[in-house]
Amino acid sequence: MQHPVRNFNPHLSVDCVVFGFDGEQLKVLLIERPGSVQKSDRNKRYKLPGDLIFKMENLESAAQRVLHQLTGLENIFLRQFSVFGKPDRIPEGDDLNWLEHSTGVDINRVVTTAYYSLIRIDKSKTAKELLHNASWHNVNALPALAFDHNSIIEKGLECLRMAIRFEPICFELLPGRFTVRQIQILYEVILGQQLDNRNFRKKLLKACYIEKLDEKQSGVAHKPANYYKFNKKKYIESRKDLLYYNF
Amino acid sequence: MQHPVRNFNPHLSVDCVVFGFDGEQLKVLLIERPGSVQKSDRNKRYKLPGDLIFKMENLESAAQRVLHQLTGLENIFLRQFSVFGKPDRIPEGDDLNWLEHSTGVDINRVVTTAYYSLIRIDKSKTAKELLHNASWHNVNALPALAFDHNSIIEKGLECLRMAIRFEPICFELLPGRFTVRQIQILYEVILGQQLDNRNFRKKLLKACYIEKLDEKQSGVAHKPANYYKFNKKKYIESRKDLLYYNF
DNA sequence: ACAAAAGTGTTGCGATTACACCCATGG
DNA sequence: CCATGGGTGTAATCGCAACACTTTTGT
Predict the structure, then answer these.
(1) B219 burial class (0-12, 13-18, 19+ CB within 10 angstroms)?
(2) CB–CB of A83 and B11 under 8 A?
(3) A47 and A88: one domain?
(4) Does residue B168 sit within a domain?
(5) Nearest residue on chain B to A58, judged by CA atoms?
(6) B56 and B115 co-located in one domain
(7) Contact at 8 Å (CB) between A242 and B188?
(8) Which of A3, A198, B85, B213 is least enclosed, having the fewest CB within 10 Å?
(9) Which residues are bridge partners to B178 per DSSP?
């Protein structure tokens, strides 16, 4: 938002649902709008990270730009999942005023392309280092957000749920080495359901791209868990001879 | 495209991949651009049906509008599947010239929201009744299209393939009553693979929303096939107690 | 020794696959 | 009576779900 006004396309934006996992809960990264704390929309002072795009900017680049500014990371895992373009999605009044004020652009309608993004909380700037107005929120306990951002998150989460059934993208949320338990909890919080640990383990470990490391937890007051890593190359190889449709 | 120029939003369009099924092949509806037959882009004279959207128009309404003009149908089955927004997706030159000329709008970049749509060929206007410049093309033998429309179709088809594995949306492509064989061929052409007819039949008919009718084919030189219909109400009912995630 | 989480196998069931012949009709 | 596609059943296999106890460590 520090860019010259004339470079923005006033009709197009991107919004990012940034998921993170702290080991227990699925988190979403929200921005607190600076000017909005005072008034009646106190309960809508949070929004998704996002921005208008530059006139000649790629949509995905715009999303990467927004996330880079926010987290300091590059090449973030991003997936486009929907477009939100109802003419009234930005209600007249405070939301609109804020947007026009903060972008300096006369806006009559914005279509936003929504991405979800998976990042490792430990790799991104820590809470204190994040831009002062960004913070992680539990996905199950979100405040009422600006614009239609609650529904964008809802839909993004649905798409994430669908996606993890088919592709091992969860690993984007985990540190490079992890225990089976960690992934299981991650699946559980994303799917919103408990999983049987024996069956989960079997299913997970039979995948050739999950590599057992020669390292164990230490300093824990119980049997230490083995560490594993995700081997992306093997995964991509294995996809080649995978038949998709089991009809 | 017969609307006053000033109502268009010059940055936003919708494009529709309209699928149809003639009993043998999966078809896509393409538009022939009027002015473009003469020159070097003779091989790119086809495009997807689509249009810029009005300044205050809903994206999906815009898609419905485009399809209504084209086919005469209302309430067409539509599903948004992606956004295409690379700044260079409309190459400088003929494509751009044509677009600026035909819309009367000065365009520097268009982001298009892509929908796929399923229609019953028999319900839509017949080939002769369709706007003179629209025609059905075999999805496996498409010409080189304008803009990035070939990749839009490709992705739309992928999404359709994914979708029919989970939802009985195929019926949108079939007449109200149909034989098992017809659906099987439809699945086969969408998935691009042969299916065992005994297994297919079992799987299909155990679904409670496929209703056997008291009608048979007549006038065929073999055992006449029974007709079935799709009961949408029963389908929606049955979804309620369906558990999605079989993890 | 105790608490706490890691790790391990088996069995039954339901779903999926593979596969070949008889049936009803029109010509 | 023949050609054509419609319609049917079974057996083997695979994958999934359910389920409880032993192991390893720190305190």
Answers:
(1) exposed
(2) no
(3) yes
(4) no
(5) B86
(6) yes
(7) no
(8) A198
(9) B228
Nearest to A80 among B82, B108, B247 (CB): B82
B3 domain residue, yes or no: no
Gap from B226 CA to D7 C1', Å: 10
Which nucleotides on chain C have any atom < 7 A from a protein Cβ? 3-10, 16-20, 23-27
- Domain containing A231 equals 174-239
Give the pTM: 0.90
Alpha carbon dihedral A218, A223, A224, A228, in 10-degree steps, equals 180
Give the H/E segment covering residue B212. Answer: strand B210-216
Angle at A114 (CA atoms; ends A78, A239), nearest 5 degrees? 35
CB atoms closer than 10 angstroms to residue A177: 14
Domain identity same for B118 and B209: no
Do B157 and B181 sit in the same domain of this protein?
A: no
Which residues, 6+ apart, have CB-to-CB distance to A226 below 8 Å? A179, A180, A212, A213, A215, A216
Same domain, B207 and B94: no
Domain count, chain A: 2
